[in-house]
């Protein structure tokens, strides 16, 4: 009974399945797993299944039964028996409906059902009481409703809120402000719980964070959300007043970093790294060339997971090319290939160019028109 057997034009009456067999199927441990994969099911077929399941003795209105059995798979996306539905069952159904985003179509109907269930789940109860049990239907709450929430309620529901997709920027700002108000000063642990809501943290809250906590943020999985920050927020992470920092380049024990340096916030007195090397992904593109010059620990291997502006790639390629005579070390280092100039290409021998051609071929999308032209000229 996997998804291949249930096409959108299938009629339940066409299937040789008795009510007894439906009852046996829905009681199997892997029934929900199979029903979770019927991505192309239609409302008509889903409701026919729900009716047959109900006729088999499975109580589709019993919250504990649905929760214990693991839900109704994607059939829950078309649940239509809302008459006299209580708040508890509405919350269970909303929780099950997270999976409805996998459906191929019918999302407008799904959103309407979520809105109806949201109304039932919050009837005669405050949003502060129910927030954590509303699943991803919370994205349908208005800004006015979100403003009415207490910081304590947002803090308690953060495990749900941080996984919801589809938030508007205004909603994210409100929820982040509520969460930050509860925490007073954000720590690495607090920030690591925020998920998609990180984009709503105020710039001043980043300024107020401890430098060690910010460095942990850069090293952790939450850093994937840093690229969603506005330029002002990014500078809140990367900037602060001057600090003393140990330097391994000049041989001097300490030197003052000027206020314009973006990485004062990352640096603790006596640290041996500015934190630049810890920055991953798209966020690395915000690092200035001034700060790149100050970093002593760059090598080709640490650049593989970083996105580079072309100016950064040009600087780093030139810098690292002085430390290796093996072009493959540089060409295999993620986006560093952006920094290979036409002059670098011209100076390759024919044998070397052919030996490393795969790196150019595999990274055509990263190359500039000038680089591609230089390669074409070399080939001919």
Question: Summary?
Answer:
Helices cover 45% and strands 2% of the residues. With 380 residues, it is mainly α.
Structural account:
The chain is mainly alpha-helical and 380 residues long. Among the domains are: 1-125, no CATH class; 298-380, no CATH class. It has 22 helices and two strands. It has helices spanning 19-27, 31-35, 43-55, 63-68, 87-96, 107-121, 127-130, 143-147, 151-156, 158-161, 169-183, 188-192, 203-208, 211-219, 231-238, 289-294, 310-321, 327-331, 342-346, 350-355, 357-362, 369-379; strands at residues 244-246, 254-256. Strands 1-2 form a two-stranded antiparallel sheet. The longest helix has 15 residues, at 107-121. The chain is flat. Residues 1-10, 240-264 and 267-273 have low confidence and may be disordered.
Topology:
Blueprint (H helix, E strand, L loop, with lengths): L18 H9 L3 H5 L7 H13 L7 H6 L18 H10 L10 H15 L5 H4 L12 H5 L3 H6 L1 H4 L7 H15 L4 H5 L10 H6 L2 H9 L11 H8 L5 E3 L7 E3 L32 H6 L15 H12 L5 H5 L10 H5 L3 H6 L1 H6 L6 H11 L1
Antiparallel strand pairs: 1-2
Helix pairs in contact: 5-6
Please report which band the strand proportion falls in: under 5%, 5-15%, 15-25%, 25-35%, 35-45% or over 45%.
Answer: under 5%
- Overall 3D geometry? flat
Work out the oligomeric state of the chains in this entry: single chain
Number of helices: 22
Secondary structure class reads: mainly alpha
Distance between the termini: 59 Å
The rounded Rg comes to 28 Å
**Would you identify the regions where 5 or more consecutive residues have pLDDT less than 50?**
1-10, 240-264, 267-273
Largest sheet, strands/sense/barrel? 2 strands, antiparallel
Q: How is the largest sheet built, in terms of strand order?
A: 1-2
Mean pLDDT over the residues: 79
Helix content: 40-55%
Topology as H/E string?
HHHHHHHHHHHHHHHEEHHHHHHH
The total of beta strands comes to 2
